[in-house]
Design a protein that fits this description.
The chain has 703 residues and is an alpha/beta fold. It has 4 domains: 10-204, Ribonuclease H-like superfamily/Ribonuclease H (Nucleotidyltransferase, domain 5, 2-Layer Sandwich); 234-358, CBS-domain (Roll); 361-561, 2-Layer Sandwich (Beta Polymerase, domain 2), CATH 3.30.460.10; 591-700, no CATH class. Helices cover 46% and strands 12% of the residues. The chain is built from 28 helices and 17 strands. Strand 6, helix 12 and strand 7 form a beta-alpha-beta unit. Helix 25 (620-629) runs antiparallel to helix 26 (635-662). The longest helix has 29 residues, at 400-428. The model is unreliable at 359-364 (pLDDT under 50).
Length: 703
């Protein structure tokens, strides 16, 4: 179990709900007579195992206390001492976050008991459901367990027993997670910071002698990584072309071929040729052959190799980073992966031997867990690993644009897995299988490969057949809503602009999307084209990729053929003036929105000119490089944008990872005073230059 950080979503933290019963309400004098605890995982209370311990306090239990919790001196006669109970409690809790109602009281009495018994004490990381409920609903009459439970429609059993109250606190915590998400509190760090802002409640607890119920989030220790697996893609490591044999070929001949070619596996298909869809192939490895010879030596050599091939073939995209291949091999316990292009066609083979150049001590913190997550909570847990990797890669001076590509790959994988899980939910709920072929698309920065640590949902669906509001569209509307909900729970919030397949404007049949393109290119008002441009950044992540390819080809063809369309897109480039009359930055709480004033004009310039001039690249970097190669725009201006693009992404990633661990909601604003004077000067120079980006686009529109 990896320790929780400020970046860990509340739904993904491993926690233990705890409660104590004592000899009295005064935390400075009370002795513990009972400890109860129960686990919380994936946002749900785990009913077993549980902890329920009576403790002999070593002194008489006042009758007033017994009237509350029902524990008498006779009940604890012969019970264990606190040190015995503490050992069991520590073993049960482990490194989990503690959750409780008014947990500052429990922490205070536990600390006092430890000091009295001369046991080591280190304050555990904790959350108080009383404070969390105050944040989630500031209008409750009071914040007792009963009142909070009634608001959340929960039933409480075993009130004023340690285990009963621990279970109640756990159930309340689980029910509060979606309520807190509505208030943009998603992570452990954000919850801690929000609780620490409740100064009146904290001061009241302090006066009563309670411990601080939460701690201020801190960034974990820096973990260096070997950047090789994050720099290289599978396509640069694979063996290509792959060795493919016909299914009918005798095993003896295949063994001879493997020895001659010095390969540890061959792919098998009926055609015996590469460049076909990945589904047509199986694989035979050295180990497969040895096992078959061992079990059936007399016939093994004459068997057709297709009879011992493993299917379906496990594959990975050529564009995937090496860390993904390492994770997939480790998860599935295989040593070979077929490699496919974005269209699903076989292009190579990757073996564990190909990855030996990776240093043995490489820290592959991002693995393949997204691909087999069972629910949104597991997706959230995997997504929460990303900030640590990003922080380490920035520390290793990896090109920020490459780091953004890694984030984008994870976002696309998350969206793909969420779509698979949403489709499974559709079957379970009786909606049936998809009515026709379809593809889920990631748009905007995720599609361009330029995601940062504050992504929201920009997605769409294209399906093969059906009219708006028809039966097919109705099915995909429900799927889109489930996809949006799952992504929101996983840590990728709903798009404030509504760019989600759950909304009618961002789903439709291929014919519907083509009709929309025709409508776009004939629009005469820029305000009618809101959110249209990011569709040109699309990347298919699930389903039939040919549908996406047909759509984007049509969109580019029509966009290039109608110059007025690209011109109107260019006219939407309003960056605003971030400078004061004295030339300094206009800041909000010491921060500047560098996406609005910096990244947006660069991205929009590259995209608009790419549409106009038929450049089919997807990333801003590739678009600018193609514009330079085609001598469109001054080379000096384009290169300045290229360099500025990398610089701005680097500034934002550094700020965002800092904010995530500090429990500060992630945004596109950076703290200017955190930059060096040289960096501030570079930023100011770049943004001043970008003020003329709309004019540059206008001049180049008909170049």
């Amino acid at each position: 179990m990896k320790p929780a950080t400020g970046a860990t979503p509340l739904i993904a933290i491993a926690a233990a709900a705890v409660d104590t019963e004592t000899t009295g309400p005064d935390a400075t004098k009370a002795r513990v007579v009972q400890i109860g605890a129960i686990g919380i995982a994936h946002g749900k209370v785990v009913r077993q195992p549980r902890l329920d311990l009576l403790i002999d306090p070593g002194e008489a239990i006042p009758s007033e206390a017994s009237l509350v919790h029902g524990i008498t001196n006779a009940d604890v006669d012969g019970a264990g001492s606190f040190p015995d109970a503490w050992t069991q409690f520590r073993e049960f809790v482990g490194g989990r976050i503690l959750v409780g109602h008014s947990i500052g009281f429990d922490l205070a009495v536990l600390e006092r008991e430890c000091r009295r018994a001369r046991l080591p004490w280190k304050k555990p990381r904790a959350l108080c459901v009383r404070l969390l409920a105050t944040i989630a609903n500031p209008n409750l009459a009071d914040y007792s367990l009963e009142t909070i439970a009634a608001w959340l429609r929960l039933e409480i059993a075993g009130r004023h027993s340690a285990l009963g109250d621990a279970i109640a606190a756990g159930d309340i915590f689980a029910a509060l997670i979606p309520e807190l998400r509505k208030r943009n509190i998603r992570t452990l760090g954000e919850a801690e910071v929000a609780c620490l802002a409740l100064s009146d409640a904290l001061e009241a607890g302090h006066r009563a002698g309670w411990a601080e119920p939460v701690s201020r989030p801190q960034a974990p220790a820096f973990q260096p990584v070997d950047p090789y697996a994050y720099r290289h893609r599978v396509g640069s490591l694979m063996s290509s072309p792959p060795v493919v044999v016909k299914s009918t070929k005798p095993t003896r001949q295949v063994i001879d071929l493997m020895v001659k070619r010095k390969v540890s596996s061959v792919l098998v298909s009926d055609r015996g040729a590469p460049d076909q869809p990945i589904e047509e192939y199986g694989i035979v490895t050295e180990r497969d052959l040895l096992r078959r010879i061992s079990s059936d030596a007399e016939r093994a050599f004459d068997m057709p190799v297709g009879s011992i091939a493993t299917r379906p073939l496990i594959s990975i995209r050529a564009a995937a980073f090496a860390y993904r291949a390492i994770g997939r091999m480790d998860r599935l316990k295989v040593r070979h992966l077929a490699v496919r292009d974005d269209g699903g066609v076989l292009v190579g083979v990757l073996s564990a031997r190909d990855l030996l150049r990776l240093r043995a001590a490489a820290a592959i913190d991002l693995d393949d867990t997204i691909e087999h997550a069972r629910d949104a909570a597991e997706l959230a847990a995997t997504w929460s690993m990303l900030p640590g990797v990003v922080r380490s890669l920035i520390g290793e001076a990896i090109d920020p644009r490459v780091v953004a590509e890694i984030i984008s790959d994870e976002l696309c994988s998350l969206t793909r897995r969420a779509a698979v899980l949403a489709e499974q939910q559709m079957l379970i709920e009786g909606h049936g299988p998809p009515p026709c072929a379809y593809a889920v698309l990631v748009l905007g920065s995720g599609g361009r490969g330029e995601s940062l640590m504050a992504p929201d949902q920009d997605n769409a669906i294209v399906f093969a057949d059906g009219e708006p509001d028809g039966p097919e569209d109705s099915w995909f509307k429900i799927l889109g809503a489930k996809l949006a909900d799952m992504l929101d729970i996983s840590g990728v919030p709903y798009c404030k602009g509504g760019v989600m397949a759950a909304n009618a404007a961002f789903r439709g049949s291929l014919d519907t999307w083509r009709a929309r393109v025709e409508d776009w290119v004939r629009r005469l008002r820029p305000q009618d084209l809101l959110n249209v441009d990011i569709v040109y950044d699309l990347r298919p992540v699930h389903g039939d990729t040919t549908l996406a390819a047909q759509f984007i080809e049509y969109a580019y063809d029509r966009g290039q053929a109608e110059p007025v369309f690209a011109k109107l897109l260019g006219e939407q480039m309003t960056t605003g003036n971030p400078f004061t009359v004295f030339g300094g930055f206009q800041l909000e709480n010491g921060r500047l929105d560098i996406k609005k004033h910096g990244l947006f004009p660069i991205v929009a310039t590259a995209r608009t000119l790419a549409i106009r001039h038929g450049i089919r690249e997807r990333s801003t970097r590739a678009r600018l490089e193609k514009l330079i190669a085609h001598d469109i725009g001054g080379e000096r201006d384009m290169k300045a944008m290229l360099a500025g693009h990398a610089m701005l992404i680097g500034f934002l990633l550094a700020q965002q990872t800092h904010d995530i661990y500090a429990g500060i909601p992630v945004s596109n604003r950076i703290e200017i005073n955190a930059l060096t004077r040289e960096q501030q000067a570079e930023l100011k120079s770049l943004i001043k230059r970008l003020q003329s980006a709309p004019d540059l686009v206008r001049d180049l529109m008909f170049a």
